[in-house]
């Protein structure tokens, strides 16, 4: 029998009000009642104790659904989709079963119960009253649900009454005709057939194929060769495993392959080498510093050395890297007791189809990278970053030529990805202060979703270095956490086949952060320090095949007994179990004598753990299935058998001519100083400020718990005016005054002119943001995330190579090592426009550089908000004629040519001087200029402080003549051929260029008058320190001869774009 | 020996470490104990004087925030829990802990009738999770947790913080002095002369001149639409306090949202930044309560 429990929420329920708002957006006035529905086949569901446990008597009614409505809409999950609410209700049902007065039973820790018996399924029922048609309800259903993972049903009130309510649906997984053993695959076949398998997967009995393996013919032939040597046919699980292990996702073949003259590949030759060189240099510096110190008496230490050893402790001299590129995350020194780790991942493809599911599995997935670092790091901060199309647009693209399967709208994607990280981060108790959103219409089909996690781990645990782990032969393979289902098998192969009740489980995954939280707490906060396991890693892409495979590289082999893996539902084939990407699982290597107590302890925490095999030193990867060997491969072939594929590149710089004529939306400087000219200036600055890339994203920050763990120092919203900031500071160890400084930089559009300039600007921004906030320049590291497109085209590879060359040079100069990185090489959407014409939309090649550093005492932190009226405003760094691919040009529909070039040498000089000033607390506020240049920076500062400013740009327009007039610059700019003019033309720049140029290497600061002397002395000899005005006592941002803007108007422009979200 | 605190953990509670840090900072002893360990050995509660259910996302808020964890405690631990609160002990629920203890009926517990659910803490009116700093006025009360506290600037972080109840329950809370704290409007910009950002700001003056204006349901001052601007309530004895805002996230000045402004002003005035901030007072009161009690018994 099927039981259905309906819990009616009160009339004023926030969720109902939200739907009212959505319908109002469609022009309809309705009233909505929200009902939480629980369905179960277990008879305990009829028990009043259970029903009462589900509802709150003050605000809710149980099974008293009203019938005064016009439409009923129910949304539930499709079979096999993770149903967290249902899961919790199932637990309550089990507790109820043990109750009452049998509290004995409760002393048995709640083991994971045999799921089929006590399953409860959740759904939501909305009762809608109002003058609306079925089409309106269908539109609402489309907004509220995702048909890939959810079902919806609609009834009008008459039908509802006639039927006696909604259907009782139990979304059980039914797997039929499944071949639950391994199939043998004969590889003595033609190249054409080999290619077909590599491309579309192994053939099923019915002639259908299992989904793309991404194996090129070259790879398939290597596999064919291997099995010829073994003298037997392959099995399906062997081919699937090789496909996983050799995939671009796991092997990063593009970064590893020989490319042009770079025989050792981009990753080794540039990224890894940069870090190696920096580490060697720093190690040398440290030893020579120590020698100097020990040889010199303290009063003989030269000034410069004394400077270097200010804030002196062992942590910041020398090499800060402890574990780089070899683990799930990179680790650097935090203080004498701890390391901090960082890892940034992308989850782009899943997020395009199911934005919520894609981003939540992304964030909880990267949390596991942290938990899987060394012996296990505690997640202490989350990062996020979204590259999206403008949510106010509604582009029409389809996945099929018949235009029946539209892509999700930019607004739906944005809401979904924002909510996914919210749910994942908030539920896990990890603060999420750090992030960004960047918009470009080319992210329409393939949004970029970045997620990152910072971890904290003792430098020493039980006498072992915290970052060291090793699976040894004889250790048991223990899978911990969630069970395995068909989630994410061939993740990218969602079809448009209609999914209905009784369908096999879908490929879309939903995270279950609470299951993971239980596992994380038990491992990191309890078991790790008991020394019960010898290695740990997470199950992410490739599932067990990659986690077990990776760990077995240390021991030299493994034997997995696959039938022991606990499943969500019966009927899965061995290959599916092996590569399933079901979430919330870690794999441990556990010495046999510890397995029992480990499993028992985890059970006490409500976490399932199972021994599924043994690490060996046999040199072979072996899997058995009920005693039969179904996979038996040489470890060496498995990990290194993929043939090299040399790559060739070409590079052509992009860009157009610089505009010669006045732009449609520009500062018209005719009749300088006149009211009308200032009106123009105002209009343009307000418009710029409202642009999605510049305006406030406060709605995200307030939804993300950014101060859990009590560690937030400098948050995502700064100043009284709450400006959305790009840098955060956190104290992960409450008892230590040291802070972790996080930031990032990315400028996707710059790739349209030069991917090298794009990469340089990104790296510089990541470094400069951290420097501006007061980071110790000696304790600053970087992460690289390449999100490229069409990486099979030489032109795109040429852009990639150029970007990598540039960041190698810069990182070495700045001495900021790369500690971790990831790439995603094919961010292209292939579909159809509204006329059914095939289109390909590629994202602009994007490099995200993330920075992580340490500030020795948070008292030295610098926020972006000016602090007091009368303070002096300085612009540090040189402003050049660099508006190519800028926000300002884009607003005018122009690309231009002068993309910002980065002068690493000049910038480094500035950053070192700045670091000294911040150490001496000479700077009251600082903002690193980025999108929108000086205009956006000035406005954000004024908004943050809720104070006016008086600014005079003449010293910037005419660097040589501080008091020159604007007229001159105007004349120059109209008569000079800009394309050929030097970017730092001594004739000067127009006010327009000064305000909107996006030259890198610049920081806008305010300084208290009493620090003026010391500040100017600090920058003596640095020619790019420009005094440009003061924080004023008025409520206006006054830019002399250009604009006078009320701070409240600036604030409105800055905040209105996304206010309604 | 100082009084001992038990801070619960498990099933998605997640603020246990910083909350224990707060208790320890004021000199109390204590530890974090997983709920399943308490269920396995409920008698352990007898050796503690303070019980704290910290913030978090127990059971992912499924079936209503705090509900599932409360049901677990009710089904597995009720008698021992009741005994605990009936002794001379203090109990504190913060955020998710507030939702759990309210669902358990440890508040309002009219006529000391623990276990009756009279109040719900439910979805924010905005239907949005809100993480932001708010200002609280401590209402007239008889709670040892709140003695000497007038107002607090601390953060909230919740999706379901809206207190709802029948009118007569609200009336009774009022007359019993069981409303512990309410959301107020205390924006510095409303008092330009007392501007925190200005270097002339005088913290003492600011404190004295602060006018407490109830939020009257106005967002974002009242971040969730809570009835009567209620942010915290107690049982009749005042020894059980449940609050949606997080005192442990506002116990030190460096945690404050205006820390950058405060430290800048202090630097200009040549002063040190005070280490402690508003939230710590709650934990200090707990320590004081048992110090007093110990003295009395001595």
Give an overview in words:
The complex is a heterodimer of chains A (1061) and B (298). In chain A, the strands form 9 sheets. In chain A, strands 19-21-18-22-20-23-24 form a 7-stranded mixed beta sheet, with helices on both faces. With 1061 residues, chain A is an alpha+beta fold. The relative contact order of chain A is 0.09. In chain A, helix 12 runs parallel beside helix 25. About 6% of the residues of chain A have low confidence. Chain B has 298 residues and is α/β, with parallel strands linked by helices. Chain B has 8 helices and 12 strands. In chain B, the strands form 2 sheets. In chain B, strands 1, 2, 3, 4, 6, 7, 9, 10, 11 and 12 form a 10-stranded mixed beta sheet that branches. In chain B, helix 3 crosses helix 4. The longest helix of chain B has 20 residues. Chain B is globular and about 55 Å long. In chain B, 57% of the residues are buried. At the A-B interface, helix 1, helix 3, helix 16, helix 17 and helix 23 of A face helix 1, helix 2, helix 3, strand 6 and helix 7 of B.
- How many E strands of chain B? 12
How far apart, in Å, are the first and last alpha carbons of chain B?
A: 13 Å
Helix/strand class of chain B: alpha/beta
The chain-level structural class of chain A is alpha+beta
The amount of helix of chain B comes to 25-40%
Order of helices and strands of chain B: EHEHEHEHEEEEHEHEEEHH
The protein's oligomeric status is heterodimer
How many E strands of chain A?
A: 41
Strand content of chain B: 15-25%
Number of helices of chain B: 8
Gyration radius over CA of chain B: 19 Å
CA-atom Rg of chain A in angstroms:
30 Å
The general outline of chain B is globular
Helix content of chain A: 25-40%
| Biggest sheet character of chain B | 10 strands, mixed
Condensed summary:
Helices cover 34% and strands 21% of the residues of chain A.
């Amino acid at each position: 029998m099927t039981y259905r429990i309906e819990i009616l929420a009160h009339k004023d329920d926030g969720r109902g009000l939200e739907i009212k708002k959505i319908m109002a957006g469609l022009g309809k006035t309705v009233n909505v009642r929200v009902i939480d529905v629980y369905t179960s086949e277990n008879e305990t569901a009829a028990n009043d104790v259970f029903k009462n446990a589900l509802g709150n008597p003050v605000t809710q009614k149980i099974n008293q659904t009203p019938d005064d409505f016009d439409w009923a809409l129910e949304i539930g999950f499709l079979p096999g989709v993770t149903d967290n609410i249902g899961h919790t209700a199932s637990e309550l049902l089990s507790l109820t079963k043990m109750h009452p007065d049998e509290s004995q039973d409760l002393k048995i820790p709640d083991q994971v119960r045999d799921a089929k018996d006590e399953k409860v399924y959740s759904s939501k029922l909305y009762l809608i009253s109002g003058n609306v048609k079925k089409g309106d309800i269908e539109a609402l259903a489309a907004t509220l649900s995702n048909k890939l993972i959810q079902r919806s049903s609609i009834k009008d009130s008459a039908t509802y009454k006639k039927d006696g309510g909604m259907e009782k649906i139990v979304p059980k997984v039914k797997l039929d005709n499944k071949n639950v053993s391994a199939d043998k695959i004969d590889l003595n076949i033609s190249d054409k057939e080999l290619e077909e398998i590599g491309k579309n997967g192994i053939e099923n009995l019915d002639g259908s194929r299992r989904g793309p393996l991404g194996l090129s013919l070259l790879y398939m032939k290597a596999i064919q060769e291997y099995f010829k040597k073994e003298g037997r046919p392959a099995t399906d699980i062997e081919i699937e495993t090789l496909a996983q292990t050799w995939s671009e996702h796991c092997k990063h073949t593009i970064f590893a392959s020989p490319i042009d003259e770079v025989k050792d590949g981009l990753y080794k030759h540039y990224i890894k080498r940069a870090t190696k060189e920096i580490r060697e240099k720093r190690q040398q510096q440290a030893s020579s510093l120590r020698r100097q110190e020990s040889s010199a008496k303290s009063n003989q230490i030269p000034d410069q050395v004394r400077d270097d050893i200010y804030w002196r402790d062992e942590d910041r001299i020398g090499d800060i890297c402890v574990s780089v590129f070899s683990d799930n995350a990179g680790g650097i020194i935090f203080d004498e007791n701890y390391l901090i780790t960082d890892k940034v991942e992308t989850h782009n493809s899943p997020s395009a189809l199911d934005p919520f599911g894609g981003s939540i599995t992304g964030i909880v997935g990267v949390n596991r990278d942290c938990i899987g670092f060394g012996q296990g790091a505690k997640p202490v901060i989350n990062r996020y970053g979204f590259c999206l199309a403008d949510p106010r647009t509604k582009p029409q693209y389809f996945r099929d030529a018949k235009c029946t399967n539209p892509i999700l709208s930019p607004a739906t994607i944005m809401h979904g990805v924002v909510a996914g990280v919210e749910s994942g981060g908030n539920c896990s108790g990890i603060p999420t202060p750090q992030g960004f959103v960047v918009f470009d219409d080319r992210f329409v089909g393939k949004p970029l979703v970045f997620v990152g996690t910072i971890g904290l781990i003792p430098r020493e645990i039980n006498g072992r270095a915290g970052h060291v782990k090793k699976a040894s032969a004889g250790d048991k393979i223990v899978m911990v956490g969630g069970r395995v289902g068909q989630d994410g098998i061939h993740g990218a192969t969602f079809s448009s086949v209609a999914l209905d009740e009784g369908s096999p489980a879908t490929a879309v995954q939903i995270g279950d952060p609470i299951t993971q939280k239980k596992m994380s707490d038990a491992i990191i906060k309890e078991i790790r320090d008991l020394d019960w396991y010898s290695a740990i890693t997470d199950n992410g892409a490739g599932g067990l095949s990659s986690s077990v495979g990776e760990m077995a590289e240390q021991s030299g082999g493994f034997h997995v007994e696959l039938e022991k893996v606990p499943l969500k539902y019966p009927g899965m084939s061995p290959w599916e179990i092996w590569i399933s990407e079901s979430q919330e699982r870690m794999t441990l290597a556990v010495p046999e004598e510890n397995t029992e107590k480990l499993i028992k302890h985890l059970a006490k925490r409500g976490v399932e753990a199972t021994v599924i095999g043994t690490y060996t030193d046999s040199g072979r990867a072996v899997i058995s299935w009920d005693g039969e060997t179904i996979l038996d491969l040489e470890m060496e072939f498995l990990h290194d058998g993929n043939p090299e594929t040399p790559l060739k590149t070409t590079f052509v710089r992009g860009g157009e001519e610089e505009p010669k004529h006045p732009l449609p939306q520009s500062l018209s400087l005719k009749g300088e100083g006149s009211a009308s000219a200032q009106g123009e200036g105002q209009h343009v600055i307000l418009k710029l400020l409202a642009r999605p890339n510049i305006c406030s994203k406060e709605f995200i920050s307030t939804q993300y718990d950014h101060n859990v763990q009590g560690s937030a120092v400098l948050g995502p919203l700064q100043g009284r005016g709450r400006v959305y900031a790009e840098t955060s500071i956190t104290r992960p160890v409450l008892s230590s005054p040291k802070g972790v400084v996080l930031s990032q930089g990315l400028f996707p559009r710059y790739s349209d002119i030069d991917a090298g300039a794009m990469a340089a600007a990104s790296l510089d921004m990541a470094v400069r943001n951290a420097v501006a906030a007061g980071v110790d320049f000696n304790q600053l590291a970087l992460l690289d995330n390449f999100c490229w497109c069409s990486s099979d085209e030489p032109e795109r590879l040429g852009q990639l190579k150029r970007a990598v060359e540039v960041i190698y040079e810069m990182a070495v100069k700045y001495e900021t090592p790369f500690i971790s990185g990831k790439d995603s090489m094919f961010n292209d959407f292939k579909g159809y426009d509204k006329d059914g014409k095939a289109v390909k939309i590629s994202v602009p090649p994007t490099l995200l550089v993330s920075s992580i550093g340490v500030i020795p005492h948070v008292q030295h932190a610098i926020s972006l908000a000016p602090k007091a009226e009368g303070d002096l405003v300085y612009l540090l760094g040189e402003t050049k004629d660099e508006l190519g691919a800028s926000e300002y040009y884009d607003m005018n529909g122009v690309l231009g040519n002068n993309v910002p070039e980065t002068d690493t040498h000049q910038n480094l000089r500035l950053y070192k001087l700045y670091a000294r000033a911040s150490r001496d607390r000479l700077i009251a506020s600082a903002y690193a200029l980025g999108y929108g240049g000086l205009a956006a920076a000035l406005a954000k500062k004024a908004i943050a402080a809720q104070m006016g400013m008086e600014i005079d740009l003449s010293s910037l327009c005419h660097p040589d003549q501080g008091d020159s007039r604007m007229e001159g610059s105007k004349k120059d700019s109209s008569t000079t051929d800009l394309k050929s003019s030097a970017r730092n033309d001594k004739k000067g720049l127009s006010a327009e260029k000064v305000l909107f140029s996006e030259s890198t290497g610049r920081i806008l600061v305010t300084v208290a008058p009493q620090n003026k002397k010391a500040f100017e002395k600090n920058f003596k000899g640095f020619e790019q320190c420009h005094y440009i005005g003061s924080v004023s006592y008025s409520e206006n941002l006054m830019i002399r001869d250009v604009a006078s803007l009320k701070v409240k108007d600036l604030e409105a422009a800055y905040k209105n774009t996304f206010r309604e979200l | 020996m100082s009084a001992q605190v038990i801070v619960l953990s498990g099933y998605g509670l997640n603020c246990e470490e910083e909350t224990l840090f707060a208790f320890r900072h004021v000199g109390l002893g204590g530890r974090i104990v997983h709920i399943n360990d308490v269920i396995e050995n409920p008698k352990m509660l007898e050796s503690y004087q303070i019980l704290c259910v910290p913030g978090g996302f127990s059971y992912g808020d499924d079936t209503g925030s705090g509900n599932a964890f409360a049901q677990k405690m009710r089904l597995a631990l009720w008698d021992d829990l009741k005994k605990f609160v009936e002794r001379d002990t203090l109990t504190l629920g913060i955020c998710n802990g507030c939702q759990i203890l309210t669902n358990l009926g440890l508040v309002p517990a009219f006529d000391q009738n623990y276990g009756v659910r009279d109040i719900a803490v439910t979805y924010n009116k905005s239907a949005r999770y809100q993480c932001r700093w708010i200002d609280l006025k401590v209402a007239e009360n008889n709670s040892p947790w709140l003695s000497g506290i007038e107002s607090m600037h601390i953060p909230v972080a919740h999706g379901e913080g809206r207190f709802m109840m029948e009118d007569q329950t609200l009336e009774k809370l009022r007359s019993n002095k069981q409303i512990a704290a309410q959301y107020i409007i205390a924006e510095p910009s409303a008092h330009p002369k007392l501007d925190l950002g200005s270097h002339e700001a005088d913290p003492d003056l600011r404190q004295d001149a602060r006018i407490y204006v109830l939020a009257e349901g106005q967002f974002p001052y009242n971040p969730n639409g809570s009835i009567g601007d209620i942010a915290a309530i107690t049982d009749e004895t005042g020894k059980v306090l449940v609050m949606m805002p997080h005192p442990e996230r506002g116990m030190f000045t460096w945690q404050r949202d205006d820390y950058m402004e405060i430290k800048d002003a202090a630097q200009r005035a040549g002063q040190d930044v005070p280490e402690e901030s508003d939230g710590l007072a709650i934990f200090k009161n707990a320590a004081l309560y048992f110090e007093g009690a110990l003295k009395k018994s001595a």
